[in-house]
Structures are given as C-alpha cells and as structure tokens.
Amino acid sequence: MEWYLEKEFDVITGKHPSEEAQKKWRKAVALVRNHRRRFRHVPDLQKRSLLQTQIRDAQERLRVIFTAIKVAIRFLDDDKPSDEVIKAGFYIDPDKLANIVSTHDLRRLEDINGVKGIANALNVSLDDGVKVDNLSSRQQIYGINTYTEKPSKRFWMFVWDALHDYTLIILIVCAVVSIGVGLATEGWPKGMYDGVGIILSIFLVVMVTAISDYKQSLQFRDLDKEKKKIIVQVTRDAMRQKLSIFDLVVGDIVHLSIGDQIPADGLFISGYSFLIDESSLTGESEPVNKSEKNPFLLAGSKVKDGSGKMLVTTVGMRTEWGKMMETLSEEGDDETPLQAKLNGVATVIGFIGLIFAVVTFLVLTVRFLVDKALRQEFTSWSSVDALKLLDYFATAVTIIVVAVPEGLPLAVTLSLAFAMKKLMGHKALVRRLAACETMGSATCICSDKTGTLTTNHMVVNKIWICGKAKEIKRSEIGDTLNAEVTENVSTILLQSIFQNTSAEVVKDKDGKVSILGTPTESALLEYGLHLGGEFEVQRQEIKILKVEPFNSVKKTMAVVVALPDGGTRAFCKGASEIILTMCDKMVNSNGETVEMTDELVNMMTHVINGFASEALRTICLAFKDTGNYDDGNSLPDSGYTLIAVVGIKDPIRPGVRDAVRTCLAAGITVRMVTGDNINTAKAIARECGILTEGGLAIEGSKFRNKTSDELMEIIPRIQVMARSLPSDKHMLVTNLRTVHKEVVAVTGDGSNDAPALHEADIGLAMGIAGTEVAKETADVIILDDNFSTIVNVAKWGRAVYINIQKFVQFQLTVNIVALMINFVSACISGSAPLTAVQLLWVNLIMDTLGALALATEPPHDGLMNRPPIGRGVGFITKAMWRNIAGQSIYQMSVLFVFNFAGKQILGIHGSDATDIINTFIFNTFVFCQVFNEINSRDIEKINIFRGMFSNWIFIGVMVSTVVFQVIIVEFLGTFASTVPLSWQLWLLSIVIGFVSMPIAVVLKCIPVETKTPKPVETKTPKQHDGYDQLPTGPEDV
C-alpha cells in the first residue's frame, strides 16, 4: 500500500503544489462516495482557473476604466451635491469622489483645489482628522468599510451535501422498494419495518454528519474573520490612535509605513519615499511613487517603501478593490500532503471493499438460486424472494458504505480545524491548513531575536557620549547627563533623537502621554523625553526637508532638517558598525568636534563591542551640517560627526530558555537570525540556550560570500546569524530545505521577509511587529510574537499527525473485521450476520464519531520528547499494522466462533435462536470497537488512559455510543433486526470487548521497528516513525 500511495498520491510535497500535481492525485481518487463532501474544503481547480481569468479581466478593466470614465465624466454638468449630502454637512457626492480617485483624475482634483479642497468638502482637518461625533453621518452618506461577502452555508445545505452520498442514495431506493413490496405482501405495518429501519439509519448518519460538518464550517468562519482583522493608525480628534480597518470612515487621516496594506481608496497628504505596489489591482509589478503630483491611493495595494499620510475618500464597495472582491468567491485551501495521502488510503480500501461487496452479493445470490433450484422452485417466484434479493443487494451496498472510509481525509480537516481553533487560544492564527500539519515535522526553526526571543519592551540602558560611557538610572537621567555634557552637545543629541524618528508622542483624552512607533524608536524617544526634551516644540521649531526611512537592507535612517537660525543639518542613526564607517569626526570629552583617527575608531569599536557583549542593542547617532541643502539631492552617506552610542536593553522573554530546551529535546534545531550586532546576538543566544559549544555564529556579510561547498559544511553548525539581510535569511532557508532536506519554520516581520516566509515550509509572521505584507505571505501568525507560542504550534502539529494515525488504525481495524465477517459468513452459511441497518450504525461509529473521538485529542508534553517525523516516513507505520492485524485476528476469531457455533456454545435453542446469536454478534462487534477505540488512543504506549478523563469529547462519544447501542438492541429491534438480550449476554459482549485491551498490551510488547542510533539529549533511542522505544520502567509506561 505504501508503494502505491507514494507512486500515486505522494505528489503534494511542497507548500505550493502545481496544478498538474493536484490534478494527478484527484484523478487517482477514483472511488468517492460523496464528491461534494470529500472535496468541500479544497479548491475547485476549474473554478480557480476561471477565478484567475476574472482577476486578469478586472485588472485590465481597471487600466481601461481610468481613461474611459475620466473622459465620460467631463460631460457631467451637475457637480452640485445632493440635498442629503449638504444636510449632513458635506459638499461632495460619494460617487463623484469615488470616480475622481478611482480614475486618477488629477485635472478634476485640481479644479476642487486638490487634497485641501477635498478635505474642506468632507469637513475634515488634515491635521486633526475627523471628529468622533460625526462618524455616524459619514457612514450614512459615504458607507462603511466592509465588502460584500458570500453568505455562509446554512445547516440544511450540509444536510443536502451529506445526502449526495451515492451509496446512501442507492440504499434509499432499496428502502423505498422494500417498503412497497413489503406492504403488498405483509401489509401494514409489518411490511414497512425493514425499509423504514434503513431510512431511519440513513437519517441518523446524515444528521450526525451534517452537524459535524456544520460545526467545522463555523470554526473556519471564525478563523476567517480573524484573518481579515487589520489594525491601522489614524488621527481623530487631533489624537493618534489604532483601530480596525472596518471602522474607517471617509475623511479619516491614515498613517502608513513599509509593509502596510492600503485600507481604502484615498489621497496622498504627505510622506517620504512613498512607493506603492499596485500589482494586486492593476497587474503591474513596477512600484509607483506617490506624491502631490500623483496622489491617488487604491485599497488593496501595499506600501513598498517609505511612509506617509493619506486622506480616506472611498470605502467598502465603492472602492475598486471592493468591486473586485465582489466578483470573486472564496475558495478552499490547497490539499495538504496528509489529505492527499489519506485520499489514497481511502481509494485503495474502497476498491477492496467494492470487490468484497460484489463477491458477497454474487455468493448470496448464487446460493439462493442454487437452493431454490434444489427445492425445484426455480420457476416459482414470489415477492418474498424479491425482498430477499433486495436485502442481499442492500447488504452489499452497505458493505461499500463501511468499506469506503470517506472519513479518513475528512478526519484531517476535522483535526486541523480543531487544532486551529485551540491555537487561537494560544495566540497563534493559522492561515493555511497544511501549516498546522507540517509544523509537526519541523526539524529547524529560524527565529528572529527582537520581540520573539526578547520582550520587545526596550529601554535605553547605557549611553556613550563625549568620551564617557554611562549607565542610565531612571531616577536621575536628566540632571546627571546635562551636568556632564555641554549645552551644544545636549541640543544636538535631542535634535537627533526628536527629528530623526518615525515614532510620535501622542496624548489621549486624559492627557496621558504615550509613544507610537517601533520599540527601538520608542526607547530612544522616551530617553529624549526623560532628558527634558519637548517633542512638539522641537518639531515646530525645526522643519523636516527630506527623510530616508529605515529598512532592513540599509539598516540606517537619515533626515535633513532646516535649522531655526538658518542652514540645514543631516541626522543619521542605525547599526553601529555602519554608522561608524560613515563618520570622519566625533565629539570628544570637551564637547569639541575632532577628527576620527584610527585610534579613535578602534576605541569606538571597543565601546560598541563592550555594549553588545552585555546583550545591548547598539545604535549610533551622528549629524552633519549640510549648508544650503537642495531637496533634489540625495542624503549624504559620509562625512558625519559621531554624537553618541546608545545601548538599548531588550530583556529575554520569560520561558524562552525552557522553550528552546523543549525544541532541542524534540529534535528541533533553533537558529537565531537577526540584524543585530554579532556580539549582542551571541550574548542573547547564549542566554536563551541557542548558542551551544561547537555551534557557529556568523555575520550575514560573511555567509553570503561563502561558496557552495563551504555552505554545505557550515550550515548544519550555524546557530546564530547576525547583521543579516532578508536575502541572507532566504538563502539560509533555501539551503536548509533543498540541500539538507530539513523541514524549516521561519519567522519574519518585515515586508522584505516575504520571500523567506514564502520559501519556508512554515512561514511564521509576527502579529504585533509584523507588517501586513509579512502576515499575508505567512502560514501562521504568532499573535503575541512569542517564541513559546511557536513551540505550541509545533506541539499541536505533532498532535494532529499522530491523532490521524490513531484514527486510521481504528478505522482500518473496523473495516477489515466488518468486511470479513459478512463475506465469510455469506460464502459459508449463505447469510450475513450484520444487516444494512447495523452496518450503517457501525459506519457512524467508525467514521464521524470515531473522528470526533480520536482526531481531536489535545497534545501532551510527551509529544515533544520524540524526534520530528521525517519527510520520507511512511504514514501507516509497522506498529500500526501490528495493532491492526492483532486486533482484527482476535475480533474475527471470536465472532466467527459465535457465528458458526454460537448456539451450541451458549446453549440457545428455539425459533428465535438465530436472531439472538446475530444480535449477540452485532453487540459484541460494537463493544470490540468501543474498547479498541480506547486502545487506539496511543499506538505504542501501554498507558492509554493518560488524559482520557479530561477529554470530554472522547468521553462524550464513548458514552453516546454505548447508550445508543443499548437503545438499538433493546428498543429498536423491529427496525434494526435485533432482539433484546439477557444480562448474561450483555455482560459477555462487554467482557469480549474488554479482552481487546490486555491483547493490545501484549501486541505493544512485540518489537516491530529497527533501532536507530541514540540521539543527543534523549534518554532512550528514538524510532524513525516518531515513537519512543518500549518502556524500561513504570515511569515510562
């Protein structure tokens, strides 16, 4: 089976499988009972192709419409707004405003006096933003920022989907025919019992299936809502604040920076180096520079570089993005590798079951015909004979129902949905189904430092200025520093902090001061405030002429300002080593500017390394007087004067060291990839337990210059990469995946991290520090930016994989026993002990209820004491086959004995003896499955009760199964072909089922795997399928 699965179904190997691969496995899935249900959560490839065509058409339409509407609108004479708009206090109609922006009509915009004119028409201040008290009138006139979505499916649609099972449809037809023939021959009501029994069983199967599927859909809907939550920064009532994009109104002033998604259509107000990627709308890959000459911003596009402010002019369905979204429908995730493989398992078993069903029907029919011929009644046919043949056919169809394990691939979806819902509570939002599954196989995590391993709550801890290093004490910051440096140096330092920053100081309604910006920027700004500086005063006195925002490639930020007393000055800050090379002067201990000699360079390098070795992030601040600066010139990249070196402390997150230790014990290598100084990175890595003896710490500049052979040798040893570029991270991930065959998870927060997030097996974006571009590319969003959360995702990923293995083991056992019992009995005795109604109940136990019980088991800590499951490991392990074979042989042996010699063994006589034996066999068979379901909770460990009584889903399924079994046997015999059993037979059924538990213990003591060398930091040798070796003492059981 594994060979066949690898050949036909092991084609979904990457994160982004090709359409050919997906078509190949779907073609191989030839035996499907219900296409609507089996493929509900995966995309329709034909619709996907149509969708891509629609997107291209929409993009082309946008390109054409910009010109067409611009010309057509010239002929509209009525520019006067409607009475409703004027009454609300506005002076421009929503549609007219939307047309100006969507068509890029610069001429018409200039006629209204540009952005200022639009702001006046919208009754909004470009500095203070909208007033909260008129939000409702803005929403009423201009609309809300939501898009029309496809309505979610109602419960009855899931019932309808469940009824599309071909085998159930055939059984319904059989039941109707049975009722018709039965009424004609046996009358009312006896003639209806068999047919009504089948219909009631089908109704139960359909309802339970629909309820399970409906609950899954609700989970996916909740997760989908979480995916769409985007937070933006706006100015309202003269205060900067954060809010959801769904709360935006026309007139809002939105602040945008690198990696943000533009939340609505609008106009550029101000900004620096503002580059926009409009490819999602127009299909054009070249980013567009936005300025006063080209101020139009469209929803759905992304900020490629720079920062800026925009005025929202159009929201919701009036935006071009909204119109495009309306034409597109939601589609499912690509198939996960496990789904594809389990579809293969279902197909193989389904074909086997189909053969058994056909042979069973033929054997029963031939025996019936031969028996009829021997009695010389071959020419005499009655409705009773027709009912018997119909019953044989229904039994054969029901064998197919049981044999085709439709629930296998669907159990993956159920387990993943359950895991995704639980992970939301653990601060992880899974955006792609397969990521949860793949994370269980992760062998390597490439993690950022800042905010992931550290708290991201930064404070200035040390400063070197005027030749002295000083440790900062919060109680005496201002007076002490001001007493030690000259007034001129202090002024330049404050100018450097307050002018060269992307952060802002804001006040809330109560006057409380807070800082909005990145943690590093906020720490510097907070330090400036503690020095006694006033942010607003500085910003009003000095005009900013040009800004070069920070990005992860340059690792610097620069600004040119016009000084109050004339002249201009450039300020630059960033990575210490880079800024140091840009400086040819420095401020000495007397506050004087001196030339930067080699001796002073060495001294400053020593200072920087000293700060870094204390795990401080080092930032250099520098300035340069630029005379009369021309805005058209680029910012200077040399000739600066070094003012200060700042050491910023970012403490390690609580629990990170334990989380790293857990990863190492689980066979997962943790690598730190950071833009920080190498000494800072090494100090933090040692503190976290990442950098160990024999491990390698390397700078990105050295890494990217290595040859292929050198990379092959050093990459397995790399534990820290410092001063890395996004391209270095991408190169590392690519090598780990392709050359070293590792399953790689990588974290990222910036838009430049998108290639690495895309390339990795699992891309993990930071929910707090991450940009929208990074989040959109990622497979999982870590909402609290915490490394411990990543470990939780890995733990749940392993739980998903093992839970599905448990379910597969359980279901294959039921399949084999049910098939063999009916087939062998039909061949030998000419009758099947399990009827259609009984088999439908068994199908429900092993399919939907079995998936609920076993596929939703929460993870336990023991999962992280096993090595990762490798890429090439077979899904159905030898241990599983051992358990399946052992339990199947036991169950079949017992049931065959009672089927052929039950009357003699149990001493049952009388006209109803056959009915009692058949009911007893059915009852015993069900209890064997109940106890085997408990056995399946752990494939290798003997202690299968660990955590069972805290899993209310499992307990609920077990109790429901037993209760309903009692009802079927004792009270629904008319429909289920059962008779009430004595308490002795009930007890015997339970005991026979219970015996499967000690048998499971014996089976688990039979070694089936080959031992592998003992890995580092583990107590016992590990096996290649992810399970521990047999226990050596009670504590390991």
Strand-helix topology:
Layout: H1 2-8, H2 19-28, H3 35-38, H4 45-72, H5 83-87, H6 94-102, H7 106-111, H8 114-121, H9 135-142, H10 155-162, H11 166-186, H12 193-227, E1 231-236, E2 239-244, E3 253-257, E4 265-277, H13 279-282, E5 288-289, E6 296-297, E7 302-314, H14 320-327, H15 337-374, H16 383-403, H17 407-425, E8 428-430, H18 433-438, E9 444-447, E10 459-465, E11 468-471, H19 477-484, H20 487-499, E12 504-507, E13 513-516, H21 519-530, H22 535-541, E14 543-548, E15 556-562, E16 568-575, H23 576-582, E17 583-587, E18 593-595, H24 598-613, E19 616-627, E20 640-649, H25 656-665, E21 669-673, H26 678-688, E22 696-699, H27 700-703, H28 708-714, E23 718-722, H29 726-738, E24 744-748, H30 754-759, E25 762-766, H31 772-777, E26 780-782, H32 787-829, H33 836-854, H34 878-906, H35 913-935, H36 952-971, H37 973-976, H38 983-1004
Catalytic activity: Ca(2+)(in) + ATP + H2O = Ca(2+)(out) + ADP + phosphate + H(+)
Transmembrane segments: 163-185, 191-211, 345-370, 390-419, 812-832, 952-973, 985-1006
Membrane topology: Multi-pass membrane protein
Jot down its keywords.
single chain; 1037 residues; alpha+beta; 8-stranded mixed beta sheet; 38 helices; disordered C terminus; ATPase_P-typ_transduc_dom_A_sf; EC 7.2.2.10; membrane; HAD-like_sf; transport
In a few lines, what is going on in this structure?
The chain is of the alpha+beta class and 1037 residues long. The protein is built from 38 helices and 26 strands.
